[in-house]
Design goal:
The protein contains eight helices and 15 strands. The protein is of the alpha+beta class. It is globular.
């Protein structure tokens, strides 16, 4: 059964796992995940889905918006955008998860980080979208939360949602702010565990990475039993890098790829979400978030001046109660001296999640005929074969 699930996860395409697409995406390339190319992607095994949802209790949802073609009409289209949501656990409002964050380069925004840093926990879903849609997506998360917890802002606390953005304006009518509250609520209501759609879906619909079509990618690692058997899952929305920087499994694919210059455009950003079932506290999760930057570096990124590189890490193991009646509550502490395997797993899963975003993305033509070409997997195979000789 596990083998079947792993095969299903490896072959799962962008139209699955909660992606709602209003019309077909341009390009019908046969896409596969990065490890199916034979890349060297670390020592630890993946979970059955090789996704952030291999950490039990986590759900992911997408709403994908693709409408119109041709010249840009600001506020109307063409539309190539969406929203992706991550729900850490059911009832995260009352059973908060420890969390920590790291900002590698701050030319961007992830709202709500001040409270995460101050409190050391996360108490609502995480949403990813485009830059100008942050307020509307925040409204959607707040409306969804108020629907589930009607006391918010009355006899209960208010909330400051965590919304992370990347710029999709090269392909999308970003001024139109087309992701509505209803789109956000739809993604949250339809979020599920199991395989996760990758590439040109959800928040990744209009993203470009390393001069190729980018977007959503995910991966996971499972530690051996002697290291605790813990799981690490990573989900990224990748929109950064230049083509000549791209490294895939230690091979400088970007430099060897024909037409190595690639699309210049905005300098881009990347959002990285790390999850684990290891019982880490906020300080340790911040340390874990920093290691995700090393996984990003393995793919060639130098965190350019104009890039927004934000990492958020959380643990599903401990529960931080909403309003504890007692002055203390149980919390399992993890020894720092046993963190190294978790650090390594985070680096490996981040690297692979970014590469999965590239290999699973399909070509998208957006506003004014701007086209983001999916990386040619046959060309990658040729490069890998030649490089290994």
């Amino acid at each position: 059964m596990i083998c079947f699930l792993l095969l299903l996860a490896l072959l799962w395409g962008p139209a699955s796992a909660g992606a709602q697409t209003t019309s077909p995406t341009a390009g019908d390339e046969s896409r596969i995940r990065a490890r199916n190319l034979g890349l060297a992607l670390g020592a630890y095994p993946t979970g059955p889905f090789n996704a952030i949802t291999d950490v039990p209790g986590i759900k992911v949802g997408h709403t994908t918006l693709i409408t119109g073609n041709g010249a840009l009409v600001p506020g109307q289209g063409p539309v190539r955008t969406g929203v992706t949501v991550i729900i850490p656990r059911d009832d995260v409002w009352h059973q908060k998860v420890p969390a920590g964050s790291f900002v590698l380069n701050g030319t961007g925004e992830m709202t709500g980080l001040a409270w995460v840093e101050e409190s050391g926990f996360l108490e609502y879903p995480i949403a990813l979208t485009n830059t100008l849609n942050v307020p509307r997506v925040a409204n959607g998360v707040m409306s969804w939360m108020i629907g589930r917890y009607p006391g918010i802002g009355i006899q209960d606390d208010t909330l400051t949602p965590v919304i992370a953005e990347c710029d999709d304006s090269l392909l999308n009518d970003i001024q139109g702010r087309h992701v509505s509250e209803a789109d956000v609520i739809k993604a949250l209501d339809n979020a599920s565990d199991g395989p996760v759609a990758e590439g040109s879906v959800g928040a990744g619909t209009g993203m470009i990475s390393y001069g190729f079509k980018g977007g959503i990618g995910t991966s996971s690692r499972v530690l051996p039993s002697e290291a605790g058997g813990y799981r690490i899952g990573v989900l990224v929305n990748t929109n950064s890098g230049r083509r000549n920087e791209l490294v895939m499994g230690g091979v400088p694919v970007g430099k060897l790829y024909s037409g190595a210059k690639g699309a210049d455009g905005p300098e881009g950003s990347i959002i990285i979400v790390v999850a684990t079932d290891a019982p880490l506290d906020a300080r340790q999760l911040k340390r874990l978030a920093k290691r995700a930057a090393l996984g990003l570096a393995r793919t060639g990124s130098t965190a350019r001046h104009g890039s927004g590189d934000f990492v958020l890490a959380f643990s599903t193991s401990n529960v931080i109660p909403h309003y504890p009646q007692d002055r203390t509550f149980p919390f399992t502490a993890f020894a720092d001296t046993h963190l190294n395997p978790l650090f390594t797993a985070t680096v490996e899963a981040t690297q692979e999640a970014i590469l999965n975003a590239l290999t699973m993305a399909t070509t998208v033509t957006g506003r004014d005929g701007h086209k983001a070409e999916a990386i040619d997997l046959n060309r990658v195979r040729e490069i890998l074969k030649s490089y290994s000789r």
